[in-house]
Amino acid sequence: MLGGLCGAGITGNLLTIVILQRDNDKKNSTNWLLQAHAVFDSIYLLARLLARQFQFLACRHVEWLPVVVNQQLAAAAPYMASTASLAHMVSIWTMVVITVDRYIAVCLPGEVQLRTVRRVKVAVAYVTVLSIVCCLPLFFDWRTDSKLSPVKCDERKTKSVIIANPVPVDESWWFIAHQVVCDSLIRTLIPFLMLLALDATKN
After folding, report:
1. Taking 70 as the threshold, does the pLDDT of residue 7 lie above it?
2. So what's the pLDDT on residue 142?
3. Dihedral of CA 112/117/121/122: which sign?
4. How far apart (Å, rounded) are the C-alpha atoms in residues 90 and 92?
5. DSSP secondary structure letters along 21-47
6. Domain harbouring 108, CATH code
7. For the residues of 105-174, what is the DSSP string, one character each?
8. What's the whole-model pTM score?
9. What is the mean pLDDT of the chain?
10. Are 143 and 75 in contact (CB under 8 A)?
11. How far is CA 187 from CA 114, 144, 180, in A?
């Protein structure tokens, strides 16, 4: 199911990029933003799919998979999930930038200088850096055990592999604060409220 949804999403994004690339108006800011969003969204879908596949393979459902490969995939799975989280945040904030761009086009048609490709590239670069700062701790909150750690493959049995622990080493106050600020506020609440406000203003 996940593979089909991710495949459909990536295919749709690729079609979007191909169609927009054929647009004669190459200097249209909205055109560039839609392509950028399609790229980030595809990266998110691909990383999420790979993270799930790595977890699946770590459970040794594929009997011919060498143990050493199994162990490497198990160790890489949480980092791939962190990459997906980063791409997801960039995709969300790129959508906010698109909404701001359309708001200016509809409500402030005289401010054409605000909708140049250069300005939107700077805006996307800014939200990308913000996303990296917010998600960077995710890449350091995993530890790789030197001992065998049980991985629950199904409801009937578990299998042991060397795997990056999916639980942070220390659920300290700073990690909880990071989750609240970055996941709850910056990733979810703030962009949601901004989209609501901008759409309400346009209407």
Report:
1. yes
2. 56
3. negative
4. 5
5. HT-S-TT-HHHHHHHHHHHHHHHHHHH
6. 1.20.1070.10
7. HHH-TT-GGGG-HHHHHHHHHHHHHHHHHHHGGGGTS-EE-SS-EEEE-SSS-EEEE--EESS-S---HH
8. 0.80
9. 80
10. no
11. 25, 27, 10
What is the predicted pLDDT for the residue at 94?
96
Whole-number pLDDT of residue 166: 43
Please tell me which residue, 35 or 143, carries the higher pLDDT value: 35
Which residue, 74, 200, 88, 87, is CA-closest to 142? 74
Domain boundaries, position 151: 2-202
Q: Is 121 exposed, middle or buried (0-12, 13-18, 19+ CB in 10 A)?
A: middle
Q: What are the residues facing 160 on neighbouring strands?
A: 150
Q: Could you count the other beta carbons within 10 Å of the beta carbon of residue 127?
A: 20
What's the total number of domains in the chain?
Answer: 1
Nearest C-alpha neighbor of 88 from the set 34, 19, 134, 141: 134
Question: What pLDDT was estimated at residue 160?
Answer: 42
CA distance 8 to 17: 14
Q: Give the Å distances, CA to CA, from 170 to 75, 135, 163, 165, 174.
A: 19, 17, 17, 12, 10
